[in-house]
Write a structure and sequence with these properties.
Strand content: 15-25%
Distance between the termini: 15 Å
Number of strands: 8
Shape: globular
CATH topology: Rossmann fold
Structural class: alpha/beta
CATH superfamily: Nucleoside phosphorylase domain
Length: about 230
């Protein structure tokens, strides 16, 4: 990358999501459900950026809260709610929507938890008028705000509003963004009735991952941030 260009910091949930982005213009950090570690990594990335950080974007997969969102659909945040209340950068939001013309713009919810029940998805949708939920955006928004950086959210739906995540999926994420296959197998051994739902959920994730890769290519090497 040429000298003098500030890099965009990208926050994802898993290493698999992070691997969809390969550009020298980006610093990509997988959170893995560990808010404290993610916060420290982000602070270090901002402080260590030789040319300064251009902005922070939360990117990856998300659970749908609102009706009408299907697996593989995109949500571009214009506002974040939950643990952190913050508007997303309007110009960046518009640029993402131009890159993802079928995306829905709206509120994204994040408080660090995996929202795995249909009942809570419905509550959050009604209470916050939120379209989708993820586990990292609140940390990204807090660090962006503390450093005066623009903030954005672009998330691809991996499970619908009427889909309850099986227990094996909820225990599968490792700190740092890896997958704990042993935890999944232990869960399946003690709760074998979830096998069919695990297969359904995994198929949904695979579909969302394919769209995530296509979307990453459309958004471009600097995540649509000029």
């Amino acid at each position: 990358m040429s000298q003098g260009i500030a890099r965009v910091i990208v926050v994802t949930g898993t290493r698999q999501e992070a691997a969809t982005l390969r550009s020298p213009a980006l610093v990509v950090i997988a959170g893995g459900g560990d808010a404290a570690s993610l916060r420290a990594k982000l602070e270090a990335a901002v402080a260590g950026a030789v040319e300064g950080a251009a902005g922070i974007i939360s990117f990856g997969m998300a659970g749908a809260l609102a009706d009408g969102l299907a697996i593989g659909d995109w949500v571009v945040g214009d506002r974040l709610t939950g643990e952190v209340e913050r508007d997303c950068d309007p110009a960046w939001c518009d640029a993402l929507l131009a890159s993802l013309p079928r995306a829905r713009a709206g509120t994204v919810y994040a408080d660090g938890r995996m929202i795995d029940t249909v009942a809570e998805k419905r509550v959050l949708a009604a209470r916050h008028h939120a379209l989708a939920v993820d586990m990292e955006s609140h940390v990204a928004a807090a660090i962006a705000g503390a450093n005066g950086l623009p903030f954005a959210v672009a998330r691809c739906i991996s499970d619908g509003p009427d889909h309850a995540l099986p227990h094996a999926i909820t225990v599968a994420m490792r700190p740092g963004g890896g997958l704990d296959l042993q935890a999944m197998l232990r869960s399946l051994a003690t709760r074998p009735g979830q096998a069919a739902d695990i297969a359904r959920t995994t198929a949904g994730f695979a579909k969302a991952m394919r769209e995530l890769k296509r979307g990453a290519a459309r958004i471009g090497s600097r995540m649509a941030l000029d």
